[in-house]
Amino acid sequence: MTSFVTSFDFHRPETVPAAVALLGGTAESKLVAGGMTLLPTIKQRLATPSALIDLSKIPQLSGITLDGGVLTIGATTRHVDVAESELVRGHIPALVVLAAGIGDPAVRNRGTIGGSVANNDPSADYPAAVLGLDGTIVTDRREIAADDFFIGLFETALQPDEMIVALRFPVPAAAGYAKFKSPASRYATVGVWVAKNAGKVRVAVTGAGPCVFRAGQMEAALEQAFEPAAVAPIKIPAAGLNSDIHADAEYRAHLVTVMAKKAVVAATQAM
Ligand SMILES: Cc1cc2nc3c(=O)[nH]c(=O)nc-3n(C[C@H](O)[C@H](O)[C@H](O)COP(=O)(O)OP(=O)(O)OC[C@H]3O[C@@H](n4cnc5c(N)ncnc54)[C@H](O)[C@@H]3O)c2cc1C
């Protein structure tokens, strides 16, 4: 008879170096933050780690600070903490909107920003904010620009034994996020983040393709005129976009334009 019992070691380090040492100890070790993705993956036998390294007892990994126009959010900061942060609301209110729209209360009370960014689900919300804000991923050993971090489907620039410590976001002049969500999970069928800073505009799209990406044509149009009408005539090509039971590629391409217009409206209202 097949055994369905999975056994693994469980570690609860109290410092970042201790966690990194454990992670590098065996090839099959896995960090666990909120566990919202990792635990279902283990339950479905899609991952069989030999060791889990729980990050919940490392205090310096959690918290939100502002310094010199840069907002820093610790890796294990939960979605609910971002959604309820007055500091975030006062400087990048679109991040509050994004965090408050993730999943349901149970997911927001466990899920973390670091886990979301490391996982790089094609429909996750945070990657759009990180890329759209020109954020920086701070790891235990280096700083990675958002443009270099998100590589492909569930793939990032992280080394197997590398750990995210914090996310840094320069406070923009204006930013807005709009998503067309799956009614079941609230993941983004398509989500668009728009940010304006010092005359430059960044537009990051999640949910539509295998990995978050920037919409360069929309960025150029919005740098000419930061208004919804500027992106209204722009349709990104459907080729290469995701097609599934929720939406086909053509519909997703259409949604990118619709969500971009809404994100510009939201950003303009927040200015
Ligand atoms: C029902 C449901 C609905 C959801 N809806 C949404 C949604 O609407 N929008 C959305 O964006 N997300 C959604 N999520 C995802 C959720 O919000 C979490 O962000 C996501 O599950 C990962 O965060 P976590 O902290 O739970 O990570 P975990 O599950 O603990 O870890 C995920 C992966 O990241 C790695 N990891 C964790 N922390 C670090 C770190 N600091 N450094 C390096 N690697 C790390 C782990 O090893 C693992 O491989 C949903 C999840 C569920 C279950």
Provide an overview of this structure.
By secondary structure, this protein is of the alpha+beta class. The protein has helices at 16-25, 38-43, 79-83, 86-91, 93-100, 105-110, 113-119, 126-132, 146-149, 216-224, 228-231, 249-270, and strands at 9-11, 29-32, 51-54, 64-67, 70-74, 136-139, 143-145, 150-152, 155-156, 164-170, 174-181, 188-197, 200-206, 213-214. The chain is built from twelve helices and 14 strands. Helices cover 35% and strands 24% of the residues. It has a five-stranded antiparallel sheet. A four-stranded antiparallel sheet has the order 11-12-13-14, sandwiched between helices. It has a three-stranded parallel sheet with strand order 1-3-2, with helices on one face. The structure holds flavin-adenine dinucleotide (FAD). The site of flavin-adenine dinucleotide (FAD) has 31 residues, from strand 2, helix 6 and helix 7.
Protein structure class: alpha+beta
Strand percentage lies at 15-25%
Basic shape:
globular
User: Major sheet: size, sense and barrel closure?
Assistant: 5 strands, antiparallel
C-alpha Rg, in Å?
19 Å
Which H/E pattern describes the elements?
EHEHEEEHHHHHHEEHEEEEEEEHHH
Helical residue percent band:
25-40%
Helix segment count? 12
Per DSSP E runs of 2 or more residues, the count of β-strands stands at: 14
Low-pLDDT runs: none
State the strand order across the main sheet. Answer: 4-5-10-6-7
Q: How far from one another are the termini?
A: 63 Å
Average pLDDT figure = 96
Q: List ligands, each type once.
A: flavin-adenine dinucleotide
